[in-house]
Amino acid sequence: MRHFGHIAPAAREGLFFQEPREFGADSPAGMLSAALGATLYSPATRPRLADDVIKQAGRGVVSMVLCLEDSIDDSEVDGAEENLVRQFTDLDTRGSEVPLLFIRVREPGQMVDLVSRLGRSVRLLSGFVLPKFTEERGVPFMEALTDAEKACGQRLFAMPVLESPELLHLETRRETLRGITRTVNKYRERVLALRLGVTDFCSAYGLRRAPDMTAYDVQIVGAVIADVVNVLGRADGTGFTITGPVWEYFRLQERMFKPQLRRSPFLEGRAEELRTALIEHDLDGLLREIELDRANGLLGKTCIHPSHVAPVHALSVVSHEEFSDAQDILRPERGGGGVMRSAYTNKMNEVKPHRAWAERTLQRAEAFGVAREDVGFVELLAAGLAE
Question: Is residue 18 a contact partner of residue 365, using CB atoms and an 8 Å limit?
Fold first, then answer.
């Protein structure tokens, strides 16, 4: 699979200076963590889940989480597990290309049990999402993941969700972060990415952000994100990929504040219609939050609606300007440092301070591609929405 692989090759060639690379479930972990993109969640109770998975793959989704936890009622767990086994068997029988598939479990024991029940279709499984991850809860989860790997004989990844009250509360945050760090470092080769559970953070204080606001506008949440990135997202080789929080809105709502989506990128052709559609579906706030995710060191995003996927992927593509700067900074002859004017003549590129940014940018370019010089977000979004 590859990002934007659902659009015609000729259209892709017109959009990209460097096309996204192909990858699969057996690709190196570094590539997969960068390529997760918009990870679409779906309740494991859906009766036509196999159809949904194939449909979303055809629309450009490359990673999905099939949820046995908060998205379903406590009384539905047994039936949801049985449904998962049936749907995986169905997918395996069809032989269609599927996204990277993860199961969000409730308890450690579910992992070994499920890989056993999945039988041959377990080969479609890339790993598990581990809720409310702390050191106390995380160690049993990671031990069970190791057992599940042995039971099925294949690599399985973990994506811990950082969402516990202990992480949010100021008096316990530091030690909770230390414990999480100890745990994920011990099992580093199995941790694909860390996910942020912002809805649970808000719940602890009875909060819910409006569609006009991002997670970063809720200061108590923004502070936790900053601390998680500070400890677990460092660019010195000790950090992990940390994905952006979920955007909850997808229906038309009464708008209190002025739309945040600027007109200037949308002035040609049908672009103004696209802008209007984004605003009407409260996706202008999503676009702003994606940009803030990037600015704060996050990559990829948890999504609960298919309409969120194309914006996340369009804003993940590396611009030609970013690519040019990153290449200049990483040229071998620049190894000793120094400063230079960018090829776009609009900024300073300082080799040593900007090196980590450049390395991350080229990693993102491998996963999402590099846009042509005259191609922007609007063209990429329109292409991503194509079916």
Answer: yes
Q: What is the pTM of this model?
A: 0.91
Q: Can you tell me the mean pLDDT for 37-51?
A: 97
What's the CATH number where 311 sits?
A: 3.20.20.60
In the beta sheet, which residues pair with residue 39?
A: 63, 302
Q: Is 48 exposed, middle or buried (0-12, 13-18, 19+ CB in 10 A)?
A: exposed
* Short-list 67, 79, 31, 12, CA closest to 197: 67
Shared-domain flag, residues 234 and 350: no
Span 114-132, pLDDT tens digits: 999 999 999 999 999 999 9
Q: Are residues 128 and 62 in the same domain?
A: yes
What's at 280, amino acid-wise?
E
Residue 255 predicted with pLDDT over 60: no
Per-residue HEC secondary structure of 77-122 comes to: HHHHHHHHHHHHHHHHHHCCCCCEEEEECCCCHHHHHHHHHHHHHH
Instruction: Single out the residue of 100, 80, 92 nearest to residue 1, CA to CA.
Output: 100
Residue numbers of the domain that contains 97: 9-317
Both 78 and 189 in a single domain?
A: yes
In a domain, 387, yes or no: no
User: What's the burial of 29, exposed, middle or buried (CB within 10 Å: 0-12/13-18/19+)?
Assistant: middle
Dig out the tokens for 386 from the structure.
């194509």
